[in-house]
Amino acid sequence: MKYILIDADTGIDDSIAILFALKRKDVRVVGITTGFGNTNARQAADNSLRLIQLSGVDYEVPVAVGATGPLVGEWEGPVPHIHGHNGIGDAQIPASSQQPLEEAACDFIIRMAKEYEGKLTLVTLGRMTNLALALQKEPELPRLVKNVVFMGGTYHAPGNVTPVAEANIAGDPEAADQVLQAGFDITMVGLDVTQKVRLTAEHIEKLDKYAAPENRPIVDYLKQAMPLYFRFNRQQNNCLDHCPVHDPMAMLTVVDPALVTTRRMPARVECGGNFCRGMVVTDLREYPMDAQYLNICVDVDGRKAVEELLTTFMD
Fold it and tell me: How do the domains of the chain map onto residue ranges?
């Protein structure tokens, strides 16, 4: 059994990753913490609670609200043209009777790390602000958790918010650099692999055809949410009814590491500059800079990844 704590800014691709984790028999989601990005932290928590209910999971999944802005500077606000005004493509799914915890996300992360000492995987699908705040309170966190898998960054692929930076890292570079240098066993699932895995309108049709009866509400949700996401990718990236699988790829990497090829290298996050802020800087010299080593995903079996994602919801 894999014990996972998910940190998310629950937008459309986050929602697929969350639902995938909740439906896996080999995964137990011990909680979800939320932050700013695709939407605000409070809306992300509401979305997460609705998704937990939608999944029909048979155990309790607590949700804690976290950071409302980056460690340095101001948050530029949500991206409704990508993820809709509610963060999940303006899809309408039933509200949950469950309420978020009163506990702050960073405190919840620390508590779960201690409760599941040595067994917990932290999966971050948005900015790393909550994890950075938890580190500031509990410097021993890298020793307490099994590993960290994060969706973010890019090694060789172009960035998606600047020529060299990916949105999650660029949204709070200071937090990302603190996390990367803290001493975690950490894996970066960045644009080098997420851009190679494409979810298509045809995939949604196949899911509609073969979904297990208990997952019909999930399929109906995706049929509402995905058109906006496809539309953005068509307008922004010339994608005809397909999109990259960003956050779900991080979750797939947790449950099936054989899907990806990784390369271990030292890395820092650039926190200054006009053109390179948010860039993950790697050093392949014989005598590299003083930096922690990351497991960076450099390739992926895209076909197998999509099939494993989709068949999790099928009978």
Answer: 2-311
Instruction: Name the token pair of 314.
Output: 């099928």
Is there a catalytic annotation at residue 208? no
* Integer Cα distance of 11 and 243 in angstroms: 14
Q: Does domain 2-311 have CATH number 3.30.70.560?
A: no
For residues 157 and 280, give the distance between their C-alpha atoms in angstroms, rounded to a whole number.
11
Residues 156-205: pLDDT tens digits? Answer: 999 999 999 999 999 999 999 999 999 999 999 999 999 999 999 999 99
Instruction: Please choose, from the candidates 194, 110, 117, the residue with its C-alpha nearest in 3D space to the C-alpha of residue 150.
Output: 194
* Set 46, 107, 246, 247: catalytic member: 246
CA distances, 120 to each of 25, 143, 266 (Å): 16, 11, 24
Task: Output DSSP code: residue 26.
Answer: T
- Helices then strands, each counted (H, E), the chain: 13, 11
The active-site residue out of 7, 9, 13, 107 is: 9
Q: Is 242 a catalytic residue?
A: no
DSSP secondary structure string, 177-236?
HHHHTTT--EEEE-HHHHTT-EEEHHHHHHHHHHB-GGGHHHHHHHHHHHHHHHHHHHHH
pTM above 0.90, yes or no: yes
